[in-house]
Amino acid sequence: MLEKSLAKLLKLGFRHFEFFINTFSELEPSYVKSLAHMLQEYHATVKSVHPFTSGYESLLLFSGYERRFEDTLEFYKHYFEAADLLGAKLLVLHGQRIEKQGDMPEEGYFEHYHRLLETGRAFGISTAQENVDKFRSSEPNFLRRMRAYLHNDCAFVLDVKQSVRAGHSPFETCTAMGERLVHVHINDNKPGKTCLLPGCGEMDYARLMQQLAEQNFSGDCIIEVYRGNFDDPAELLQAKQVMEHFQRQFHKLTAINPVFAGKPFNMI
C-alpha cells in the first residue's frame, strides 16, 4: 500500500518522492489529502506523480480515436488534481508503444501530447515525456523531433534503466532531451542487470552530473528501482548516500562554473 511504503521511507529519512498512483481510489481527494498530511509532518515533498494507466496510454491517448482521447483528457484531470494537492509539479507520461505507432503519425502524437500538456498546466502541472523501452519515446531521435516540432514547448524525464534496456546510452538520451529535461529516474546497471540500486553497478554518475550541469538541469533526481532490486531497506539508505555524494558534485560544478546556470536539484 502506498501509505505504508511512504511511512517506512519517511522514517528512514527520505524527504523527496515520486508517487506511483496505483488505482482509482488513490485519486480520491480525501485519500490524497491524508498522504499530504503525512508529508507535512516530515517537511517532505512530492516532485512528480506516475499514472497507473501508463500501460494503456497507447489506447487512451494515442490511438487516433478522438472521442476516447477527449474522455481521457477529462480523466487525467484527476491525476492533475491529485498532483496539485500533493504539491507535485510533474506528471510522468509513457506514451505509445512502438508496436502501436501505426495508429497515429508522429505529428498527431506530438499534438496530442501538447493537448495533455496544456490540460495539466491549468492545474499548475507539467506533463513530462519519459523515455521508455519498447515505446516511441525510447528512441533519442524521436525525442529530438518532438522538441523540434513543439519548439521546445515540452518536458522530458530521463530514466537510466529504460535507456539501457532500449539499447541506447543514457547520455545519448539525455543529450536528445536537451534543456527540456526536467526530471531524472536514477538507477544503476551492469552487464546482465539493467536495474540496480545506485552504487551496485557500473553507471558513470560523475559523467551524468557533468552532463546535467552542462544542460542547465534544474529538476530533481529520484531513485527508481523495483521491489525485487533490494532485500533490506538499509540498502536504500546506502543508495541514498551514494547519490548524495554526486549531488554535492553537481553543486560544486554549478557553483564553480557560472556557465552552468542550472540551480541545485533535490535528490531522492
TrEMBL record:
InterPro entries referenced in this protein's UniProt entry, alphabetically: IolE/XylAMocC-like (IPR050312), Xyl_isomerase-like_sf (IPR036237), Xyl_isomerase-like_TIM-brl (IPR013022)
Positions of the Xylose isomerase-like TIM barrel domain: 7-243
Recorded superkingdom: Bacteria
PANTHER family: HYDROXYPYRUVATE ISOMERASE, INOSOSE DEHYDRATASE
Record keywords, A-Z: Isomerase
The protein's name in its UniProt record: Sugar phosphate isomerase/epimerase
One of the record's GO molecular function terms: isomerase activity
